[in-house]
Amino acid sequence: MSRVIVVGAGVLGLTSAVRLLEAGHRVDVVARDLPLETTSAIAAALWYPYRALPQERVTAWAARSREVLAALAAADPDAGVRLRRGTEVLAEAAGPPWWAGAVPVLEAPRVLPPGYAGGWSFVAPVVDMPVHLRWLATRVEALGGTLTRLNLAALPDGADLVVDCAGIGTRLLAADRSVEPVRGQVVHLEQVGLEEWWLDAAGPTYVVPREREIIVGGTDEEGVWSRTPDPDVADSILRRATALVPQIAGARVLRHRVGLRPVRPTVRLERVGRVIHCYGHGGAGVTLAWGCAEEVAGLAAG
């Protein structure tokens, strides 16, 4: 049994820790930010491969993650996962998306909002991230792992293997300047009975219903480090979201949040000596997490 240190307590770090523990490793998770402080906690967390490449690997990871999330939705209400039908809309009609192979069924939309010419509807997992992250952390502890706040200046020593899931922190820890922040701002609204999600990736504009609230977004600001919500941006988000889904007009605003997506030209998932790098998932962390975690466990066994 190997001793493994996982760096990072977002969705990639915690899912990797779970799969490694299930494989029999001794696992300690260390991170500057605890799970509910991470970018993962802010994500709207609609299953959707956004800002993540290469296409072939991302499609495979996304397909496996969707399978796991769908199973959790059916089997464990405490995991914070629900399957919801929704629609991605397009200004111009187009063929199936490159990731279509990760979805069992893509259908033509039953109805399109004004101004849109095409799109596709499908059932996707929607994850309440604070709930899911707490569930993952509990799972890590139940399997015998640990979770510790630790501010690192470099990847740690003292383990047989280190798994680097540090997200934007890999600019420092892995000396990888190809990882760039892409700022995403969202608004939380009261739930007004919305059941289906809507997405216009060109905005991006999205309206994602959870059980008790609705997450609307967003922004895609490359190289911006500020985590402070901008009121003018929030107004723009609400205008776009309401135009897409008029049902949310007048819904009470609960809070504003900002996260920094760790975007890289391609996701880095590889083993280099005693380090497994797993970062650069862009806006698709929860979409790829379980597929990537299983590959991490495979690399640890190799």
How would you characterize this protein structure?
There is one protein chain. Strands 1, 2, 3, 4, 5, 6, 7, 8, 9, 10, 11, 12 and 13 form a 13-stranded mixed beta sheet that branches. The chain has helices at residues 11-22, 55-75, 129-142, 170-173, 231-244, 285-301; strands spanning 3-7, 26-31, 81-90, 118-127, 146-149, 161-164, 180-190, 197-200, 205-209, 213-217, 221-222, 253-272, 275-281. A hairpin with a 3-residue loop joins strand 9 (205-209) and strand 10 (213-217). The mean pLDDT is 97. The protein is built from 6 helices and 13 strands. Helix content is 27%, strand content 31%. Helix 1 (11-22) runs parallel beside helix 3. It has one domain: FAD/NAD(P)-binding domain. The radius of gyration is 19 Å and the shape is globular. By secondary structure, the chain is of the alpha/beta class.
Residue runs with pLDDT of under 50 for 5 or more positions: none
CATH superfamily: FAD/NAD(P)-binding domain
What is the domain total for the residues?
1
Rg calc:
19 Å
Describe the sheet with the most strands: 13 strands, mixed
- Counted beta strands: 13
What's the SSE pattern?
EHEHEEHEEHEEEEEHEEH
Main features:
single chain; alpha/beta; FAD/NAD(P)-binding domain; 13-stranded mixed beta sheet; 31% strand
Topology:
Layout (H helix, E strand, L loop, with lengths): L2 E5 L3 H12 L3 E6 L23 H21 L5 E10 L27 E10 L1 H14 L3 E4 L11 E4 L5 H4 L6 E11 L6 E4 L4 E5 L3 E5 L3 E2 L8 H14 L8 E20 L2 E7 L3 H17 L1
